[in-house]
Amino acid sequence: xxxxxxxxxxxxxxxxxxxxxxxxxxxxxxxxxxxxxxxxxxxxxxxxxxxxxxxxxxxxxxxxxxxxxxxxxxxxxxxxxxxxxxxxxxxxxxxxxxxxxxxxxxxxxxxxxxxxxxxxxxxxxxxxxxxxxxxxxxxxxxxxxxxxxxxxxxxxxxxxxxxxxxxxxxxxxxxxxxxxxxxxxxxxxxxxxxxxxxxxxxxxxxxxxxxxxxxxxxxxxxxxxxxxxxxxxxxxxxxxxxxxxxxxxxxxxxxxxxxxxxxxxxxxxxxxxxxxxxxxxxxxxxxxxxxxxxxxxxxxxxxxxxxxxxxxxxxxxxxxxxxxxxxxxxxxxxxxxxxxx
Length: 341
What we know:
alpha+beta; Jelly Rolls; Phage tail protein beta-alpha-beta fold; 3 domains; seven-stranded antiparallel sheet
């Protein structure tokens, strides 16, 4: 995708973006451009015209592609498209309304596009920080003092200085946020098709789920979760809530998993849990891959609590409880072995 500036408008991308057909990399570049307040206002005008054009298409069967191409043609400065519109004798009211709607839409888009075409863009310096596959709690301090803890193989982009209007970051993967409160400047996280808006709170964002699903768990405070390009589709999340955004819907529920953010807190709580469930949590918490030599080990049940303990201590407690042993294959792969075999 091309970089956006005052002399370079990628109209094909604009249409794809408004149709939610772009990929994450393209969205990052475009949303950097949107961080300028003037550009946001311009884009919102184009978006309204696009939505009107889409609704009119559904009602009147207008050719959106031709309308979009016509707009590009006019913005490129071609003045040959000034022929008078002639209505043939056999026209109908329905056909006339279709043409009239198209002209109105093009006028609105032309005005917005003209401003966009002539709008200067101020470059903003950005920082990009990524955690490796072997890291699982990488700490990042943002320009306002807020803290972000990146899970393994995650990435965050943010400006070296936040704007006067809001604080915005882009996330790929999973991260836990501790946001400095500022009622005058909202903090916004973009991840896939989700946006999370807060004033000051702590929460976890997981965008590592299949099919671009995003989950948001609120530890303290209040969070607003909504769909990109559609703030009407949103939920308010309070402490203890989990918000889920899929491709087609958005919902919330109460969290009943005491270990939801154990990867960041290192606090593990198990109450009469199957060892299979326990190992699944440990794998996520320490970014390891624990397997079993025999499947019967999975059904053993355990009650235990660990507070910020290294993984070898956790494994030793489990093994001593069930007369097991463990073998380390490499830096991340571990096998539990039954000593009785």
